[in-house]
Design a protein that fits this description.
GO terms for molecular function: thioredoxin-disulfide reductase (NADPH) activity. By secondary structure, this protein is an alpha/beta fold. It folds into 2 domains: about 60 residues, 3-Layer(aba) Sandwich (Glutaredoxin); about 120 residues, Glutaredoxin. The protein contains 5 helices and 8 strands; from the N terminus they run H-E-E-H-E-E-H-E-H-E-E-H-E. The radius of gyration is 17 Å and the shape is globular. The termini are far apart.
C-alpha cells in the first residue's frame, strides 16, 4: 500500500474513523475491509476504493471520482447494500442497450447528486444499469423481480424493500417521476 493507512494496532484511531465513516462490520452498512479515498482537504472522493482498486489494478482512474451511473457487476454489487439503489434492468444482448440506458438515467442521477452535494449531503440513491448475466439473474431471484426488460426498480436491501415500475418504454420523464415519487415517499414498497 503506497498510501497512508492507519496501523491495525492503533485501535483508538481506527474506532474514531469507523464511527466517522460509518464502518460497522461485515454485514452492516459499510463493510470491512474498506478503502475510503480522501482529497487533500479530507473530503471523501469515494467510499468504494476497494472496489475501484479491484477493477482498476493499474490505478488509471485514480482517484476514482464516483460515476453517476454504474453498470452492475460482480465487483460493485456490494454497493447495493449501501442504501436505496435505482436499478434499470435492460436486455444487454443488444450491445448498445446498456450504454443507451446509462445515458438515459445519467442526467437524472447527476441532477440528484448535484442537489444533495449542494446541501453537503450524500445522494439518497445510487444508480445502476443491469444487463443479463448470472449476477443479475441472482439479484432478480433474490428480490423476486420479473424477467421483464426494461424494468425500472429501486431496491433498498437494508429495508428489504423494492419499488417496481414495469412499463413498455422507459423515458427520462418516467425515471425522473419515479425517483421524485420515491424521494417524496409516495411509492408503496413491496417486500424483498
Amino acid at each position: 500500500m503506497p498510501w497512508l493507512a492507519v496501523p491495525y494496532t492503533d485501535e483508538a484511531r481506527r474506532s474514531r474513523l469507523n464511527r466517522l465513516y460509518g464502518i460497522q462490520g461485515m454485514f452492516l452498512h459499510r463493510c470491512i475491509p474498506t478503502l475510503i479515498v480522501l482529497d487533500p482537504q479530507g473530503e471523501v472522493i469515494t467510499r468504494q476504493g476497494r472496489v475501484e482498486v479491484l477493477n482498476d489494478e493499474d490505478c488509471r482512474g485514480f482517484p476514482w471520482h464516483p460515476k453517476p451511473v454504474l453498470e452492475l457487476s460482480d465487483s460493485n454489487a456490494v454497493q447495493l447494500n449501501e442504501g436505496p439503489c435505482l436499478v434499470l434492468f435492460v436486455d444487454s444482448e443488444d450491445d448498445g442497450e446498456s450504454e443507451a440506458a446509462k445515458q438515459l438515467i445519467q442526467p437524472i442521477a447527476e441532477k440528484i447528486i448535484a442537489k444533495y452535494k449542494a446541501k453537503e449531503e450524500e445522494a439518497p440513491l445510487l444508480f445502476f444499469v443491469a444487463g443479463e448475466d448470472d449476477m443479475t439473474d441472482s439479484l432478480r431471484d433474490y428480490t423476486n423481480l420479473p424477467e421483464a426488460a426494461p424494468l425500472l426498480t429501486i431496491l433498498d436491501m437494508s429495508a428489504r424493500a423494492k419499488y417496481v415500475m414495469d412499463v413498455e418504454e422507459i423515458t427520462p420523464a418516467i425515471v425522473e417521476a419515479f425517483v421524485n415519487d420515491f424521494l417524496a415517499e409516495k411509492l408503496k414498497p413491496e417486500p424483498i
